[in-house]
Amino acid sequence: MRSLIISIIAVSVWSGLNAQEKDSINLDLLSAPQSPAANLLGFSDSEIQKPENPTDFMALVQKETSDFTTLPNSIAMDFRIQSFFPAGKHNNYTHFSRLRKENDESKLDLWNNVQQTAVFSFGYKNFDMIEDSMRFGQSFSFGLKFSLFRGGKLDETFKSAYAKLKEKETAIGLAGAKAQQLIKAEPEYIRLDSLYKSAVISGRSDLAVS
Amino acid sequence: MSDNSLFEMIHLPKVGSAMSLEIRVGAGQSGIITITETSGKVTQYDGDCVLKYGNFDELNGREIDFNVVCSDVNTSHNNLLVTVEIEGFSTSSPWTLSRQVTSGGAYQFFGTLSFFK
């Protein structure tokens, strides 16, 4: 914790000193860092892992910890929180692309913006294991970043193309469902399906007996 | 290698009585999931769906057909992905259906899940 506080102070002091050297005001200082946690521990952008789903996340953790046997010397990760929720929890593309309230297009949907853009970042470094490090001990950092506003409204061209895409996908989906039912009504399909199912079921019965 | 259709026979356990079937499309994709139940009832979902079943006796002998029309709306991806998962008892799920497409491409995945005791 002490290291974390020192890091925050160090970043602030460094930024302040930098600002004093320049004649102009640097408005970039007001922008949120790409990855707040990694920034505090001095990770470069290429070192930050960005898993897109729980499977990626677990695979990364497994790799970085050598199959859960050791702690890594350093790791920085950014992930979008909403991607980790189960399906149906406001995490599909329609939710992501919606900027305004579903039932009132004149109002911005702030809560949806927060949900869709929230990125959690964390970093860890074991400075004792890093050669020529000026610091020692271990440091953790955590950060949360989200946007309240994501522009006024969706681009009209995109919106109309997206609506047409949905319409076509829906029609193709219904046609696909009809095709599936037609194929399943074919006598040859029924015969093969029945043979296959009896083989699987009898196979399982044999296993149960043995 | 890509798997773009799924046919699974699922052995319902004797113990337990609730399961959920979850179908979702990958990040950065738009997708419409169309489900057809044995009764002929067709339902469509946008992006993902979670279907809950509370009685294995009723599920025994039934089939659930699905198809997913997927489009790549994020130009940084070219691998369309659909995940099918059953929760409530042990199966070999999640199953992943995938297909390499050129940027902006669309593809339809088909599958059938058959339940038996």
Quickly list its features.
A: 210 residues; alpha+beta; 7 helices; flat; B: mainly beta; Lipoxygenase-1; five-stranded mixed sheet; 1 helix; 9 strands
Question: Can you describe this structure?
Answer:
Chain A has helices at residues 2-21, 36-40, 54-64, 93-97, 110-117, 156-185, 187-209; strands at residues 48-49, 74-80, 100-101, 104-108, 119-126, 138-145. By secondary structure, chain A is α+β, with helices and mostly antiparallel strands. Chain A has 2 domains: 32-154, no CATH class; 160-209. Chain A has a 4-stranded mixed beta sheet with strand order 1-2-5-6. Chain A has a two-stranded antiparallel sheet with strand order 3-4. The N and C termini of chain A lie far apart (59 Å). Chain B has a single domain, classed as Lipoxygenase-1, CATH 2.60.60. Chain B has one helix spanning 56-59; strands spanning 5-11, 19-25, 29-37, 42-46, 48-53, 63-72, 79-87, 95-100, 106-116. Chain B is mainly beta. In chain B, 3% of the residues lie in helices and 60% in strands. Chains A and B meet through helix 4, helix 6 and helix 7 of A and strand 2, strand 3, strand 4, strand 5 and strand 6 of B.
**What is the typical, i.e. mean, pLDDT of chain B?**
84
- Please give the CATH class of chain B: Mainly Beta
Shape of chain B: elongated
**Low confidence ranges of chain A:** 9-22
Query: Helix segment count of chain A?
Result: 7
CATH topology description of chain B? Lipoxygenase-1
Across the major sheet of chain A, the strand order is 1-2-5-6
